[in-house]
Amino acid sequence: METVKIATRESYGNALVELGHKHPELVVLDADLAAATKTAVFGKEFPERHINCGIAEANMMGIAAGLAATGKIPFVSSFAMFAVGRAYEQIRNSIAYPHLNVKIGATHAGITVGEDGATHQCNEDIALMRTIPDMIVINPCDDIEAQHATKAAFYHDGPVYLRFGRLVVPQVNLDRENYKFEIGKGIVLKEGTDVAIIATGLCVSESLKAAQMLEADGISAKVINIHTIKPIDVELLVKTVSEVKKVVTVEEHSVIGGLGSAVCDVLMEHAPTKVLKLGINDTYGESGPALDLLAKYGLNDENIYSKVKSFVI
Amino acid sequence: MHTTDLKKLANSIRKNVIVGVYHAKSGHPGGSLSSTDILTYLYFKEMNIDPKQPTMPTRDRFVLSKGHAAPALYATLAEKGFFDPEEMTRLRHIGSFLQGHPDMKQTPGVDMSTGSLGQGISTAVGMALSAKLSNEDYRVYTIIGDGETQEGQVWEAAMFAGDRKLDNLVVFVDNNNLQIDGNVDQICSPYPLDKKFEAFNFNVVVIDAHNFDEIENALNIARQTKGKPTAIIASSIKGKGVSFMEDNVGWHGVAPNEEQYKAAILELEEAGEVL
């Protein structure tokens, strides 16, 4: 089924507007990137509740902490590189340690930032956010999931890290009406018996396409969408490896500390299984069109297909 | 409340700072003692707070951005009745609600967790902004260190506060001119601090941090000033009140031994009797 492609950052902005109508305590903060993070639509609708802090991410996180400590529910937006990279310690000490109700909506995660190149391509954010106690880490794969994730983050009491992309992505969850989002619960998108492909973010749709290609070769691949990397769905992962012998993880993030590591942490403890981690291989990105980068760094459908095939056979 | 009463309270708070740091066998007496008079005035004369209702929504807020002065904040809160002063003997002990640096989740009366320099002032700015957004009239106070102004985040926060005209915000700079490695102006000078804050669109008052009349006057000016946050550059003496600790960088982050502890308490008790 052909559907309109939408970037998850856009879904984020739209969900904020919807939440803003219902909840006067919701405020949105930006560091001079509102046009790119897509929170500008919120600013247009609620100018008094859209706080542009200027290019000062560390201060923005502190302001959000102060707002949360006095009853507001702030969503803080910037590129993943600057939200998590620049302001890691402010997130850790001013927001998460006091368990303040701040949501970090980071856009432009991963290499599909594209032409801006390595300084703007954050492949380390999931790793950094995962290590912070109490932090919820969510990486939605499409429009409907990103909207639901934003709303779930709002209703969750405590800090949440939301990871969004710049690139337009196809819709994975086609039954939008009946789509259910629950923090910490993975979604089985396709059943299979030979291998489980566990993916997150935009790699979910690429993995689904790869699974169809594998099917033609007689390899039955189960596909799981893990939108919440922390807390991860332990039950689903353990159940999955009782059905398949091998697991492949796919993420637009470093293979160090991201989804692959989170899955291995669980499987090592509960059900040791052979795992192939696909992701950014401990390297920086570079400038180029997003889809070409995805291919070059081994994360499009064809790459996933061939790597899973040689891993399984 | 008369100045003499404030001096008595400050004297008692200083004793509990020494008690706390001595029992913890670690901590920061120098910067605690330089901040004590400002804290005493804020909690006993300036701020709208109620120790029986530490989370009262309409209360004024205080953020100790120089979080290492936690012993002074704790001793002030205890003196005010937020908790038993006896708790000071458990400062920094395992299981104590008096952590090495302020923890809003554990200590009654602490409005923000701090300790990493430069971050507290941003949270105070966020609180002041929050009051403006919801048309509430509580005020927000913070104390930063002079060495802390070397953190760039302080100036990000100042730029925002000045731009947003947060006249419900007061930033004290505890200006004792000493930091761990030596004199502030010899390590990386932030001076002139008054002109810097003026340039960031603050109303600036320069005072003696140990003179209650000057603290009062500065806070009155802050209240009357509309459209600008106020920075109070408070010239202070590190270790104030304990002669062998005064203006001595060696007492930044060291606890007194038993002999020094007794000498410090004796000196403070004698000073208290004179009052």
Helix/strand layout:
The complex is a heterodimer of chains A (313) and B (275).
Chain A: E1 6-7, H1 8-22, E2 26-30, H2 34-37, H3 40-45, E3 50-52, H4 57-69, E4 73-79, H5 80-86, H6 88-96, E5 103-107, H7 125-130, E6 136-138, H8 143-155, E7 160-163, E8 168-169, E9 187-190, E10 195-199, H9 203-216, E11 221-225, E12 228-230, H10 234-241, E13 246-254, H11 259-270, E14 274-280, H12 290-296, H13 301-312
Parallel strand pairs in A: 2-3, 2-4, 4-5, 5-7, 6-7, 10-11, 10-13, 13-14
Antiparallel strand pairs in A: 1-8, 6-12, 9-11
Helix pairs in contact in A: 1-8, 4-6, 9-13, 10-11
Chain B: H1 3-24, H2 29-46, E1 61-64, H3 70-80, H4 119-133, E2 140-145, H5 152-163, E3 169-175, E4 178-179, E5 182-183, H6 184-187, H7 193-199, E6 203-208, H8 212-224, E7 230-235, H9 258-274
Helix pairs in contact in B: 1-2, 1-3, 1-9, 2-3, 2-8, 4-5
Quick structural overview:
Chain A is α/β, with parallel strands linked by helices and 313 residues long. Chain A is built from 13 helices and 14 strands.
